[in-house]
Predict the structure.
Amino acid sequence: MVDAITFLKTRRSTPAKTLQSPVPARAEIEALLEIAARTPDHKKLEPWRFIVLSEAALKRLGPLVEARYDALGLPAEKREKTCSQFTDGLMAVAVIASPKPCDTIPEVEQTLSAGAVCLALLNGALASGWGANWLSGPMAFDRGFLAKGLGLEPQEFVAGFIHIATRGATPPERPRPNIPGITTWQNT
């Protein structure tokens, strides 16, 4: 098994459109959710939750995505790509950002915690040998889709749809950030 530092330096998401069957079994998903939940969470608010979407659930959401694109007047050229995330998806975990009222932990910190859950889930799946991809898009924030498709409360949104299945073709490596170009050192 690859050591943690090597994994983190070389990890790659698997494009969702290349994921193949089989998908993780329920027990494997539950183990990944345990990993994801071990994320920074000030005051233990748990400002996130999970909705596991089977292939059938994703397919059910596909027509709603299409209808919401039409209703919102979103670009038709992007509709197919977003719809295929649902109609062609095999399994995904919707990480729901669910901020809690708190005088000492601002909502932005709770949202960042939900993002950390997404990355922990993504990395947990990849480290376990699965292919995985973190997607969002306009449906992650569209109230009509969120309420009707996922039953979310008004303050909730999708921090990420984490697609998990068997790895397909690995795309070529992409350019990575130039660390010196984005790093400032303050010594005084």
